[in-house]
């Protein structure tokens, strides 16, 4: 099942993708819901970020082929960090290139969407707490990451976590092709089978550190081929069975640039 969060000239709503239409549901994917008879043409709606999480937990250095590419070892435990909710944007929204950085990079990732409250979850039950998966781009100001020595500023700018276009509930996450195109040229191409720490392990691991809430996101790491973006670029993250997350990069025109976030 593919859930979409969308607007159609009215309140923000959830629906289920059916061919080229979205069937409105009464409720959200995180609670019991009822599918209605209302259908909206996909081409007529505006797709929004599929969730607005309380937190985004990200994992660094989790693909074996990426570790080989940069000559580093996979850590013994997941290397995690946080991105604030204000980094979240949806497909077709703009990534704003911050004025204080001169070197921003893309990172295609599979994102886990948490279904319900999860705390100290054993690995054997972790999949029960996953609603589904979506595409993500862990945008990073690489020069600031190197300068600061920690990652909050580099990873935390507004618009630095595009996600979407859908939450897909019925895919097996361990063997999915993942690809990123920059201006139509393939830059990253791998498979989630190259993840060292699998989704169920990551959910369990993180849940023993902090309580995960419905709609929270766990980014599972990026494959090889990370590289720079610039204003005017278009970035596309495609994951098998999910779809394509597409965003353009624009220059910040002033420090007062605003992003229009549509919350639940």
Poorly predicted runs = none
Helix content: 10-25%
Number of domains: 2
Strand content: 35-45%
Question: Radius of gyration in whole Å, from Cα?
Answer: 18 Å
Task: Kindly identify the CATH topology of the largest domain.
Answer: Fumarylacetoacetate hydrolase, domain 2
Any idea what the CATH superfamily of the largest domain is called? Fumarylacetoacetase-like, C-terminal domain
Characterization of this structure:
The chain has five helices and 20 strands. It is mostly beta strands. It folds into two domains: 46 residues, SH3 type barrels; 196 residues, Fumarylacetoacetase-like, C-terminal domain (Fumarylacetoacetate hydrolase, domain 2). Strands 1, 2, 3, 4, 5, 6, 7, 8, 11, 12, 14 and 17 form a twelve-stranded mixed sheet that branches.
How are the SSEs ordered, and which strands pair?
Layout: E1 2-7, E2 13-18, E3 21-26, E4 34-41, E5 46-47, E6 56-60, H1 64-70, E7 79-83, E8 88-89, E9 94-97, E10 104-105, E11 108-114, H2 123-126, E12 130-137, E13 140-141, H3 142-148, H4 152-155, E14 161-168, E15 177-182, E16 185-191, H5 199-207, E17 217-219, E18 228-229, E19 234-239, E20 243-251
Parallel strand pairs: 6-17, 8-14, 9-20
Antiparallel strand pairs: 1-2, 1-5, 1-14, 2-3, 3-4, 6-7, 10-13, 10-18, 11-12, 11-17, 12-14, 15-16, 15-19, 19-20
In short:
The protein contains 5 helices and 20 strands.
């Amino acid at each position: 099942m593919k859930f979409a969060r969308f607007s159609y000239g009215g309140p923000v709503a959830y629906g289920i993708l059916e061919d080229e239409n979205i069937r409105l549901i009464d409720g959200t994917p995180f609670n019991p819901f009822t599918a209605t008879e209302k259908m909206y043409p996909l081409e007529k709606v505006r797709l929004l970020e599929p969730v607005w999480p309380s937190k985004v937990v990200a994992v660094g250095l989790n693909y074996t082929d990426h570790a080989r590419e940069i000559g580093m070892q996979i850590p013994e435990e997941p290397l995690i960090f946080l991105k604030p909710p204000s980094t979240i944007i949806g497909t077709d929204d703009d990534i704003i290139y911050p004025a204080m950085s001169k070197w921003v990079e893309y990172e295609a990732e599979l994102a886990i969407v948490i279904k319900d409250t999860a705390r100290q979850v054993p690995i054997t039950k972790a999949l029960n707490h996953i609603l589904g998966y979506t595409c993500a781009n862990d945008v990073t100001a690489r020069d600031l990451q190197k300068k600061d020595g920690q990652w909050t500023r580099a990873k935390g700018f507004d618009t630095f976590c595009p996600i979407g276009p859908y939450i897909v509930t019925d895919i097996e996450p361990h063997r999915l092709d993942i690809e990123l195109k920059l201006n139509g040229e393939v830059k990253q191409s791998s498979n989630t089978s190259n993840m060292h720490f699998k989704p169920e392990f990551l959910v369990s691991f993180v849940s023993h550190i902090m309580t995960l809430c419905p709609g929270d996101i766990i980014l599972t790491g990026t494959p090889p081929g990370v590289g720079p973006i610039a204003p005017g670029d278009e970035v596309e993250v495609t994951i098998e069975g999910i779809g394509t997350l597409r965003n353009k990069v624009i220059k910040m025109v002033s420090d007062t640039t605003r992003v229009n976030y549509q919350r639940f």
